[in-house]
């Protein structure tokens, strides 16, 4: 972030020198030093607005920051799902997440809280200061503010689903702010702000897609559909009215996609889901942007432990690998469970050599063959792959689920669901063979199998209060479901994460701790 903002400041200062020309020694000595720039005197020209927004985007990448040996922050949302396990077991905090014995000292949880609230803080700064920048093109200002509101809504959407009642901060803070030690706001209030922010972003003049990776209209509408679908379920239980809102919003994207299939669509094959050349395009409605010049892709913890699948030779940590039971739960013939799909059971020695057997399935959903190498082709060694956050595949499944909850599966809902299965090479029973109940579970199964390892499954478990059972192919109640990765049962307390112990010590207004965790 500092690097990006500094570059923008440098442009501003250079422009000032050119415009002002030579100045007297006395004037030079009394000029404001760049190191004295503050939020009160920085936001003066449109470049500053762009710099403020860049800082918000930059902070999203906390998601991939390290969380101790052989672990990254993103693993917090995968380990408790039960769909993955570890070959390494070197990181005690990650082990606690797998074993469902995490608490307020777990580093991933602390990092997530700090990371999302940094996004909120940067977004609040932009939303507070950018309106006062003049002169500035009105449409550009509205667009930047819309993007900032999308990003703030995204942050709060994660916060409220992870911790429930949480501080709701909408203005920049300082040590003298009245709410410097904020209390927790009810979830309803947080969701109200999320919807307001996304609705404002929807009207901010954003393009439907943006290959630069910035927020776009399709991403905003998809996020709104996610929010409405979540509000319809647990814990708010708003029901049919919100299922309809979710279905309608998802259908707006589907309608646009049907009319513009080269702009928004499913990729024809699974390789394109993790290919550098398809970043921010077609199926990828929103992604976290990664480039090795700034930050390299953080998903390498899915590489097999000490096996030569890249130019590095025997390496990798294997700290997130699929459970065999989840891998085997895919239907026979499902292309997602075959090499070239989301899993590989063999690869090429050192990335581009002779093929060898991996000894089991591994997650290749985020594997960059351009960087690592592939058959007969040396890798670039530069992992510039982005991390998907919203895919069109999810939009189709959201529509199918939400529309079904309004009474029964319709032809359009069935068609959306069937498109996911068609790409997987699967035969789908006729619409008339489904009841509302059987179609509901069929869509849920597709969510588990299509959206796995994208930090979505955990949130499905919480909003549905259901967990996919790989053995029965059905769904268990959340409380009491036994994760096959650890053989441990989910408890009521796991519906929320604990607040970090240090946060509770620093701010007593956050108490009580979430139920079931030490410090409550």
TrEMBL record:
Signal sequence bounds: none
Database matches in Pfam families: SusD-like_3, SusD_RagB
Transmembrane segments: none
Claim: Signal is one of the keywords in the record: yes
Domain SusD-like N-terminal positions: 88-229
Keyword Ribosomal protein: no
Residue span(s) of domain RagB/SusD: 338-517
Lineage top rank: taxon: Bacteria
Cellular localization per UniProt: Cell outer membrane
GO CC field: cell outer membrane
Keyword line: Cell outer membrane, Membrane, Signal
Principal location: membrane
InterPro entries membership: SusD-like_N, SusD_RagB_dom, TPR-like_helical_dom_sf
Family: Belongs to the SusD family.
Protein name per UniProt: RagB/SusD family nutrient uptake outer membrane protein
Organism this protein belongs to: Spirosoma endbachense
């Amino acid at each position: 972030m500092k690097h990006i903002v500094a570059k923008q400041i440098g442009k501003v200062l250079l422009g000032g020198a050119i415009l002002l020309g030579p100045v007297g020694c006395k004037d030079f000595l009394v000029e404001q030093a760049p190191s004295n720039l503050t939020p009160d005197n920085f936001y003066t020209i449109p470049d500053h607005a762009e710099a403020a927004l860049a800082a918000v985007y930059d902070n999203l990448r906390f998601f991939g920051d390290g969380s101790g040996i052989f672990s990254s922050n993103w693993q917090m949302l995968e380990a408790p799902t039960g769909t993955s396990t570890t070959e390494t077991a070197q990181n005690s905090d990650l082990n606690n997440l797998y074993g469902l014995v995490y608490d307020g000292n777990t580093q991933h949880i602390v990092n997530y809280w700090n990371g999302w609230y940094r996004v909120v803080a940067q977004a609040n700064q932009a939303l507070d200061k950018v309106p006062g920048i003049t002169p500035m093109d009105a449409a550009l200002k509205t667009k930047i503010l819309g993007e900032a509101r999308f990003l703030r809504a995204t942050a709060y959407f994660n916060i409220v689903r992870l911790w429930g009642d949480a501080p709701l901060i909408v203005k920049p803070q300082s040590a003298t702010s009245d709410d410097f030690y904020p209390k927790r706001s009810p979830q309803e209030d947080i969701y109200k702000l999320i919807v307001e922010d996304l609705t404002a972003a929807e009207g901010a003049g954003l393009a439907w897609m943006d290959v630069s990776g910035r927020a776009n209209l399709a991403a905003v509408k998809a996020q709104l559909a996610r929010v409405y679908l979540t509000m319809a379920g647990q814990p708010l239980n708003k029901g049919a009215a919100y299922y309809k809102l979710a279905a309608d919003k998802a259908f707006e994207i589907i309608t646009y996609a049907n009319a513009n299939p080269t702009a928004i669509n499913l990729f024809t094959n699974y390789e394109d889901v993790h290919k550098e050349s398809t970043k921010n395009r077609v199926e990828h409605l929103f992604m976290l942007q990664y480039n090795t010049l700034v930050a390299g892709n953080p998903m390498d913890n899915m590489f097999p432990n000490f096996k030569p699948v890249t130019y590095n030779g025997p390496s990798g940590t294997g700290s997130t690998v699929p459970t065999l039971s989840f891998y085997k739960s895919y239907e026979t013939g499902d292309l997602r469970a075959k090499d070239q799909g989301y899993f590989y059971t063999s690869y090429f020695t050192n990335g581009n050599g002779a093929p060898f057997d991996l000894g089991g399935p591994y997650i290749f959903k985020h594997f960059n063959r351009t960087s690592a190498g592939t058959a007969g082709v040396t890798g670039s060694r530069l992992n510039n792959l982005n991390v998907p956050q919203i895919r069109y595949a999810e939009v189709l499944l959201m529509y199918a689920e939400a529309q079904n909850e309004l009474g029964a599966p319709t032809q359009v809902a069935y068609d959306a669901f069937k498109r996911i299965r068609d790409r997987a090479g699967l035969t789908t029973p006729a619409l008339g063979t489904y009841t509302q109940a059987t179609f509901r579970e069929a869509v849920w199964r597709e969510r588990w199998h299509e959206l796995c390892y994208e930090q979505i499954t955990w949130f499905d478990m919480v909003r549905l209060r259901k967990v996919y059972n790989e053995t029965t192919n059905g769904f268990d109640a959340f409380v009491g479901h036994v994760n096959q990765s650890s053989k441990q049962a989910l408890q009521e307390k796991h519906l929320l994460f604990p607040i970090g112990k240090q946060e509770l010590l620093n701010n007593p207004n956050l108490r009580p701790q979430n139920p079931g965790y030490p410090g409550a």
